[in-house]
Design brief:
Carbamate kinase, 13 helices, single chain, Archaeosine Trna-guanine Transglycosylase, Chain: A, domain 4, binds glutamic acid, 9-stranded mixed beta sheet, alpha/beta
């Protein structure tokens, strides 16, 4: 067995999908909870801190109420309210029987995006770790409608990994990992064992979607990308195999491992890219888009065509090109109203138009991140190592 890259992990997030935790009748699978509890105990005994991100509330609610039809948003929220209880009851019983205490945290997008709530959540998690408690986290489905929804628990798991400064995110689902082509359609699809450059494989997810949860391979890849950009390893693997977590951390070659990038995004830029709430939009011309994308430049008033949204100086805004596509995000040094007054003008005219000049740039490069994805992968050679299915 090759050297285990995860042997140095000290803080770990394990995410379990609804398909892993429930059976075909939407009943919770106790065997899976037992494998997980054994594995978490094994990690904790090594001094590793573990947080669990769990799905399965809606699915368990369906099982409990015998509700099989597709559901409206309020119906799903009601199902989650019922199922969350069964979910936590099962975690508590099975973890307690192995001398572990669990805690429940229900989060929304707003809790992660708002700096103060973000740090409150981080402090709570730290305190739980100090007490040896295993935090079990789900989205707060009751209040999570569109605007404040995290979207899916794959995304939540990446944000939690960032919140606890995890060095590894493990996503357990019903698939073995990432394949170089759709394994449902192609018999010769190969499991990708290691991915060193995640941008090269983002196109491999296809449109696969899970039947019970909200995610699919693409949401898992996006979550893995967030984790590796924060400097953590990510692993996508099947959670249907007994003791998958222990196998992963013992160095067994299962699933797909994503290696953290060498160009780790600094914490501030990671937050800016993935968590900062967007308060407005700045539309720029082709010249400014090129200067930002190709030459790594700041955004100057001369390239701005428009500013919309009632944002203030210091707010985060998205930058869009003429096609309307968002390609960057950054902290604006001027308000929307001020930008409308100086748009199209050279920086030497800012003082004359505003009666003062704080900066030459509207968004400085140091406070900007690019949002554009690289081109989708060629399906042929996505990564360094492959193995048969
Ligand atoms: N919060 C949802 C639940 O517990 C799951 C969402 C997801 O699977 O992405 O059912």
């Amino acid at each position: 067995m090759s050297q285990n890259p995860l042997s140095g992990a000290r803080r770990v997030v394990i995410k379990l999908g609804s398909q892993v935790l429930t059976d075909e009748n939407m009943n919770l699978r106790r065997d899976v909870f037992e494998w997980l509890a054994d594995d978490v105990k094994w990690l904790k005994d090594k001094g590793i801190k573990v947080a669990i991100v769990t799905s399965g509330a809606v699915a368990a609610g369906r099982g409990r109420l015998g509700f099989t039809k597709t559901a409206t948003v309020p119906q799903k929220q009601a199902l989650a309210a019922v199922g969350q209880l069964d979910l936590m009851w099962t975690y508590r019983e099975i973890f307690n029987s192995r001398q572990m205490v669990v805690a429940q945290l229900l989060l929304t997008n707003e809790d992660i995006k708002d700096k103060k709530r973000h740090s409150n959540a981080a402090n709570t998690l730290d305190e739980l770790f100090k007490k040896g408690v295993v935090p079990i986290i789900n989205e707060n489905d009751t209040v999570s409608v569109k605007e404040i929804k995290l979207g899916d628990n794959d995304n939540l798991s990446a944000l939690v990994a960032n919140l606890i400064k995890a060095d590894c995110l493990v996503i357990l689902s019903d698939v073995e990992g990432l394949y170089d082509k759709d394994p449902k359609k192609f018999e010769d699809a190969n499991l990708v064992r290691t991915v060193e450059s995640i941008d090269d494989v983002m196109g491999l997810a296809g449109d696969s979607k899970s039947k019970v949860g909200t995610g699919g391979m693409s949401t898992k890849l996006v979550a893995a990308k967030k984790a590796v950009e924060a400097g953590a390893f990510a692993k996508i693997s099947s959670g249907k195999r007994p003791n998958a977590v222990r196998k992963i951390f013992s160095g067994e070659e299962i699933g797909t491992l994503f290696v953290p990038g060498t160009s780790k995004l600094k914490k501030k830029k990671h937050w800016l890219k993935y968590s900062a709430p967007e308060k407005g939009t700045i539309t720029v011309d082709d010249g400014a888009a090129r200067a930002i994308l190709q030459n790594g430049k700041s955004l100057l008033p001369v390239g701005v065509l428009d500013a919309s949204g009632d944002f203030k100086k210091g707010d985060t805004v998205i930058i869009v090109g003429l096609s309307g596509k968002t390609f960057a995000k950054g902290v604006s040094r001027y308000s929307a109203g001020e930008i409308c007054a100086i748009k199209g003008a050279p920086s030497c005219e800012i003082a004359q138009k505003l009666g003062r000049k704080d900066y030459d740039e509207i968004i400085h490069r140091d406070e900007m991140v690019l949002m554009a994805e690289k081109k989708p992968a060629q399906r042929k050679s996505p990564a360094r190592k492959k193995a048969g299915k």
